[in-house]
Amino acid sequence: MAGPIPSQKVIGTHSGAFHADESLACAILRLLPRFHEAKIVRTRRSDEIELCDVVVDVGGVYDPKGLRFDHHQRDFDEKWTLSPIEKYPPVKMSSAGLVYTHFGKEVLKELGVAAEDIEVVYPLIYDSLIREVDGIDNGINQYPGDHLPAYKIATGLSFRISRLNPRWNKPLSSGDPYLEGFNAAMKLA
Predict the structure, then answer these.
(1) 3-state helix, strand, coil in the chain (%, to 5)
(2) How many helices (H) does the chain have, and how many strands (E)?
(3) CA-CA 20 to 30 A from 80: which of 97, 121, 131, 188?
């Protein structure tokens, strides 16, 4: 006799226009076996957010133990500090940076990175991909004044994902007009 069917995990993020940070955060989570088949719920309703197993970029809470990864609190100032490239100053993290901070090593292991290489690869992935998303999403000036960049734009991911949002003058179909673009954004991320 088979045991009970495990319930499907749910990843929550905000509805409406989407950005690279929550698209990348959801994509990172889906690389983990426990979230690989997770349903994505796009909402701003607190009653729906509370039912999600993990929440990114919405809800007003940063609590890694509770799997809540929002960076939109007035007093939020979590920064990545593990950069091997000393010229990079710490950058305030977006939901992508928060999810990567807590799950990045596990994801790298799932992707087949050798255990002895994870400690080297982990900060390099942040500096070459995620730092850019964090900086752009938080409105951080790329060149804060000392002629050294706070981050470099290496992938253009934030711009490419923003173009997947429906245009303001596009006729709306029934349902969520952003859903198709968000799914494409996660795939791109």
Answers:
(1) 40, 10, 50
(2) 7, 7
(3) 188
Q: How do residues 79-105 score in pLDDT, each as one tens digit?
A: 988 877 666 778 899 999 999 999 999
Residue 41, SS3? strand
Give φ, ψ of 63 to 5 degrees.
-150, 90
Which residues, other chains included, contact 44 with Cβ-Cβ below 8 Å and sequence gap of 6+?
14, 15, 16, 58
Q: How far is CA 104 from the centre of its chain?
A: 11
Q: Which long-range contacts (CB under 8 A, 24 or more apart) does 117-122 make?
A: 120/84, 122/82
pLDDT at 29 (0 to 100): 98
3-state secondary structure of 107: helix
- Write out pLDDT tens, residues 3-44: 444 578 999 999 999 999 999 999 999 999 999 999 999 999
Cβ of 166: how many Cβ atoms within 10 Å? Answer: 15
